[in-house]
Specification:
Radius of gyration: 19 Å
Largest sheet: 6 strands, antiparallel
CATH class: Alpha Beta
CATH topology: BirA Bifunctional Protein, domain 2
Length: 221
């Protein structure tokens, strides 16, 4: 199946789910979800996989075990693509009633990875490389996001010239578009592809300087 766009029915499905996030609504509309959300997203990531890596489409169910919000279903459908052997740095795409959202970078780092990230940011060669890449993305319309400390991390001065990046515990670029006619056409694939290509240098920096975690599996919290 080749990607031909996200049908408007998929966005309508999520509008309804936002109003009635219940098992009754889900069961009554599951066929619409499968045909107008999941199937086109699968087609999209399968076409992009040769360039951007192995895709994983997330489950539509929320993990409510530790959340005060007990609504059972996500009001968006997302997928992530990751290059095998890269260690860290992925691409993400999401569709919802709000439109299309794309991002790339890292969303969660283990302590050993955070340590390597900060050492690279402080380095006089790798740090300026990341600064230049972040500024390039901001100029191109990307927001730079990720979990951050409020204060300077231990071992780094508060007046460090790259303190904003040093406070990060994860780092990714993101941008989105509201619903428009192109979302229902193959142009949506072209937009995702061209956007992700703008993030390849950020992911390359992360792969080169952060890499995979060395923490044993039972310590990865």
């Amino acid at each position: 199946m080749s990607f031909a766009g996200f049908p408007d029915e998929g966005l309508v499905f999520y509008e309804g789910l936002e109003a009635d996030n219940s098992r009754t609504y889900w069961l009554a509309n599951r066929a619409r979800y499968e045909s107008s959300v999941r199937a086109p997203l699968l087609a999209l990531v399968e076409e992009l996989a040769p360039e951007f890596g192995t895709p994983k489409v997330f489950r539509p169910y929320r993990d409510v075990r530790f959340s005060k919000d007990k609504t059972p279903y996500k009001t968006h459908q997302g997928a992530v693509l990751h290059q095998d052997g890269a260690g860290v740095g992925s691409m993400y795409v999401q569709v919802s009633a709000d439109g299309l959202w794309v991002s790339g970078g890292c969303w969660r780092l283990q302590p050993d990875q955070v340590d390597r990230y900060r050492r690279a940011v402080a380095d006089e060669l790798q740090g300026p490389r990341l600064v230049a890449e972040v500024e390039r993305l901001r100029t191109a319309g990307w927001s730079i996001e990720g979990e951050r400390l409020i204060r300077a991390p231990r071992g780094y001065p508060a007046d460090h010239e790259r303190i904003d990046l040093l406070r990060h515990k994860s780092l990714h670029g993101a941008r989105g578009w509201e619903p428009a006619d192109w979302l229902h056409q193959r142009e949506a694939l072209d937009r995702v592809r061209s956007s992700w290509r703008q993030l390849t240098e950020l992911n390359a920096w992360l792969a080169d300087n952060v890499g995979a975690t060395t923490a044993p599996p039972d310590r990865r919290r």
